Amino acid sequence: MSNSIEIPFSTTLMVRDTCLCLHVQRAARALARLFDDALRPAGLTNGQFSLMMSLNRPEPPPMGPVAALLAMDQTTLTAALKPLQRKGWVKVMENPRDRRGRLLSLTTEGKAVLARALPIWESTHAMIDGKLPDGSVARLRQDLQALS
Amino acid sequence: MSNSIEIPFSTTLMVRDTCLCLHVQRAARALARLFDDALRPAGLTNGQFSLMMSLNRPEPPPMGPVAALLAMDQTTLTAALKPLQRKGWVKVMENPRDRRGRLLSLTTEGKAVLARALPIWESTHAMIDGKLPDGSVARLRQDLQALS
DNA sequence: TCCATTTCTATTGATATCAATGTATTTAGT
DNA sequence: ACTAAATACATTGATATCAATAGAAATGGA
Prior knowledge:
Chains A, B: This is MarR family transcriptional regulator. Chains A, B: Residues 17-148 form the HTH marR-type domain. Chains A, B: It comes from Rhizobium leguminosarum. Chains A, B: One of its GO terms (biological process) is response to stress. Chains A, B: It holds the Pfam family MarR. The structure is a homodimer of 148-residue chains. Chain A has helices spanning 9-18, 20-39, 46-54, 63-69, 74-86, 108-131, 136-145, and strands spanning 90-94, 102-106. The radius of gyration of chain A is 20 Å and the shape is globular. Chain A has a two-stranded antiparallel sheet with strand order 1-2. The first copy, chain A, contains seven helices and two strands; from the N terminus they run αααααββαα. In chain A, strand 1 and strand 2 form a beta hairpin. Chain A is mainly alpha-helical. Chain A has one domain: Arc Repressor Mutant, subunit A (Orthogonal Bundle), CATH 1.10.10.10. Chain A binds a DNA duplex (30 and 30 nucleotides) through residues 29, 32-33, 36, 40, 45, 47-48, 62-64, 72-80, 82-83, 95, 98-102.
């Protein structure tokens, strides 16, 4: 006996259509592929581009605020820095004011890589802008910001 | 000599504020954490919940369409199925009509796990809905769909 | 039928992601 | 100054993600 616990197919369709988490994950994967493809000639992934761009500041930031800006776990940032350090694009140094902390900065070569990637970002982003209805991109950004 | 190639800080701020890819990745990470936390008592991550829900169909689907539905690489789906198979929640069988292919289905226990997770999804989603302005969630879904 | 092409999936290698945990350092309270 | 608590990162282990590649089976054209 024992009726097995079943979710109706109609519920499945409802969840698929309405789940915001699923929709965001889908879009995240699709956009990541799009930017990864575009940025490949520059030797960067979309995540590496965003991370390095966030390090292009007058003063080298510590890790915590950078992780918060990117809405990622601090351990994820530690891992993401590894390949960039290996390539000599990012420098991680001890914070003289707080020896627990690290300060992150782009190397000269890192800045050059980022500068070569920038026009690719611009054209890719313009392409997306063009494909979406006018104004929807700005609206989308606002809505997304409310989630993170 | 050689002036190093620098991107102005103002450009960095512009990219940070406008990059749709970054905004989507940020929201994706934040939402993933939120649902992962909520679903943890059910033993599922947000991705596993979405995948298993997409398998709750009258007829077991092959892998290709499932990967397309989730907008993920086919190799990602292969990997994502591994832990679910190990736990006995998903069954992967050869397609008798096409011996290259596989058919994916939930086991009885898988269906039970999914059924226990459903109320968690409902309450978590309702919580998000409540925190966002009226109507913005539906609009957001539409905009995201245009991207994937 | 035979063969080239296409389709469907798996494997490998690299990076991304987070939970759990540990270590070193700073801060705050006394 | 001393100590407990908080803070900033790193490490480990598991899963997620995709590119490149390879294998097997189906399909289509001659």
